[in-house]
User: Fold these one by one.
Assistant:
Number 1:
Amino acid sequence: MKIKYLILAAALITISCSKKVNLAKKNSKQKSVVPYSDPNNQGQWVLNTEVSDEFSTATLDENRWHVVGAFVNGKPSYKNPDRPHRDDWIGRAPSQFSGNNYRLENGMLKLETRWEPDFPFSDKADKVGGKEIKHENITTACIIGRKEFLYGYMEIRCKAADAEVSSAFWATGGLTEFDMFEFFGDHRQPKKEAEGKDRELWWSIHDWSKTGKGKTTYTEHKYFDFRVADDFHVYGYDWSADGVKIYVDGNLFRDVSRKQINEWDDVKLSKGGNGAAENYVITKPLKIWLDQETFPWHGVPDTKEDLHSSGKVEFEVDYVRVWQKNKNNNN
């Protein structure tokens, strides 16, 4: 009997050690992940695990992400635990953010836009392009990172929703906004289809200070040789005090210096901007947003069939990773 106990104890110790070894290997693998554009890590990047996410868990990590419009007592709530004295933005009309419009599946985050006329929409209308537009019919998804960081290499592997709604990866903080991309997977307007809107990289910088008032201080429209909703691609953003470098599937796509951004004629081209003030305002810590929105000036789905025959489309995100140069969250 004693021998049996000794054998059993040895087996349990072996299993326990094996689990620890496997866990150590897993943690080591996570720490060794490097930017797709820098496989040898010549930049000596260090993964910021507080703001990165592989979306491989059964439930969303709500210490890492805040879900906008989470349901409380049968109604969407726009209270933000990190900004208790200010409600969240509910999304641009006609759509509205719903906390029910996301799920984790097969190691991916799936953000959904739904045709949902029975949703308890806000009575407040938005003024868009001088017109009052109600929140109705369309619900979208939005999650916001709860940790800030300053400068680094941001990378996302994703596939945009194949519809006339945006699939966006952006960040806010310090009264500034950095729109890494706002993709439109499809357009029903022939002119915009001909322009290649479903292949477009639209990225921007905005100033939300008292002087900037949300004006665009830099923007670009560039085009890929693929539709953003056809397949997964890896988009990387090297954001530093010196400017922004954009990588697509590991290759440098754009390199825009701070000097170039400051020389952009924001007054003439965006009808306002910062004028003589510096355009490169993204110099403070930011939080990442992942969401879908409607843009009425680009056209929106007017019926369930315009959205999709199923009444639902998905923005699929495999991972979000952020690397930095050191532990002090600075370059």
Note: The radius of gyration is 22 Å.
Number 2:
Amino acid sequence: MSQPSRKQSPKTPKAVLWRQGVHVAGSALWCDALRAHELCFVSSALALGKSRKRAGTLLCTPTTLQLLTAMGRAPQGPQLLSPLRRPFFWGTLRLELFASGSDPGAASLWVKLPSEERVIFAGLPSELATSVVEPLQVRQADSLVIAAPSAPLYVELPSQAALIEQILSSLSESRSRGVSLIVRCSSLILLAELLPKLKLPCVKLSVELHRALTFCQTLPGFPTIQTVSARAAKPGQLLFWPTTSPLPKLPDDSLLLTLPDGLSLSGLVRYARASGVRHVYLTAGFEPSVAAKLAAHKIVAEPIGPPEQLGLFASASSSLL
């Protein structure tokens, strides 16, 4: 006698999807997207590539738009500018931008859908203590989309003293070997903290980082830093380059150092728990070890991104089983 079939409960639809950028399901809202959409939130000036022509409306803070303009990354089309901590409606969506603690103008986005579900697109938040920007804030939500590239590598991020020592040690090695040193960093506030303490006579930055820091020095409280714009570094020289831009063509023997950015593993867990979320989507930093740490707090984690990126995640997960 055949057994009666069991009716399976419908799968809960995801709050966010990847469609050439993070798309809030059931809405016309994208976040840090790769092409034009009706409304696109930009979490920070360094979250976008060099050329972004958009037909939709750009949502960001006024300072982010100023930074995008200074860097030559300002997209075409209309803008919807909002200060931090001022909720507003866009159609049926309730939105609020709040401090991510990462860079001048950078923000996270809180969204409340008509279904009452709440989503946070955090961008690349930072716990770095500085007087230059407002400290990291959190909001209550059901789902969290976040980039935490340093989470798989650091339980807690290295101190500034340790980073300075590492940079100077790598620079000394590059000089002894007669090669250049490229330091990758996309955190403007981290550069503002580190560069004066390196005590170098002249600091070379990529064109975009130089433009960004030059603009930032017009803001209240931002330190004055002597830098020059460069596209390459000679042997024995140091060049800072953003992690969000492709590297220039380098000699095979050049040294490459990437500074940690965003939240550590502990910082990610603190952020997720403080937000009260039960689902975390990682645009960067997903590893089985990270998912396991969040699972210990009954928080489900999964990667979100381009199909080829998810394939890499799957391969890495399989190799660790």
Note: Residues 16-154+262-320 form a domain with the Metallo-beta-lactamase; Chain A fold (CATH 3.60.15.10).
Number 3:
Amino acid sequence: MRISKKILQRSGIEVKGKWNEDLPPVTIDTRMLSQGGVFWALTGGKSDGHDFVEEAFDKGAAIAAVSKDWADAWAHSFESNTFFVMEDTLLGLQELASEVRDTLGAKVVAVTGSMGKTTTREQIVAGLSTLGKAAGSPGNYNNHIGVPLTILNTDGDEKHLVIEMGANHEEEISLLCEIAKPDTGIIINIAEAHLDGFQGIDGVQRAKGELFDYLSEEGLAVVNLDDERVIQTALDNNYKVGFTLGELPENWYGSIYSGQIVDVDDWCRPTLAVEGMVIKMRLPGRHYASGAMAAYAIAIEAGGEPDAVIKAIEAVEPMEGRGKIVELSEDVEILDESYNANISSIINALESLVRRPGKKIAVLGDVEELGEYSEEEHRRLGSIFLLEEIDRIFFVGQRMAFAAEEAELSGHPGIEQLNADEFERLIQSLHEVIEPGTSILIKGSRTMKLEQVVAQLKQSYVNKGHV
């Protein structure tokens, strides 16, 4: 991407050394650095990015973005190298992304919600790709660092840019909107995620609603009409469209895209009927149907052709750790939902598991960031009727001990509770209970690292010659 020195100057950034106004790929991690790229040194957490500047140049970085204090003290040691110098490297990253956003010809779609953001983002990118080049946030780049990096790493010729926005405190979505300046915003759902930072579900609603609050009169608010809290956040927006898989709300006065789930297979992959057409999805779970409806509504509003949009949405595959079905053998499969979790998303995944024939096993890890609501929410999970249809349940972590206690009180005969560090015991117990015709759900918060369980089971079946 080409940018001018004026853009850097408006961002409070000074260039030291040679620079040809080309902005190569930007990263904050030397392990992801591309040859000739920009290494952006951020300070915070457990490390200071400035400690890795020399390593970045050794690995082929063309530019290092550093603080003025560091440059004054150390830049003389790198006389032949080029630097972007600013007072605060995080603020500089955000300011530059905001300035670059203003130069892009792309329409920006912002996606937020309590669960399903990443998969919905991919569905929206697929639908909009039928209209020209579309790109989305890579991986989990959805915070105050990831959103600026997404913008700075665009090619610059996209017609649409779909940006995921996450938050665990109020005013975070507002900051991301100031950087990304979305033309279209969608709130997928509002549920009990990050309750500690939001101080309850009402705080979640206010925080997610910041996206709709930001949109101008010309901006498009895309509203899940099957979520009452999302509807409430959108009622004051002038220009909005809704999508639904159920009954139409009485107090809705915008346009509507209506669909219906007409079938699900034995992994709960839904087939939708939409305006006389059919979307046959590859994603396991009824909840992913909302993302398909959102993607359809956004693409059609942008001028897409229904047939092409539907084919594109149908082609979206589940991502690693987010609904990926892993075949261990011909008759043993994992529903890999190990990337992250909240209580509602666990219940959604369990609904997919219980549709499976044969033996059903669930490995459920702690849900983080629930604060004072943690015990209550985990106990709620342990008391749901769905658990009665699952043969063996492994509750992993100190918070899941509350869920295990509730499940045991309900008389479930197949409960095992483990500490988070009892990895080998968990793997051994799984091997003891897996038999032909078994389906396994693995889901927990990111900190539980349950993807290691998936990897270990895959490796053990490779060793047996099954995979």
Note: The first strand starts at residue 14 and ends at 16.
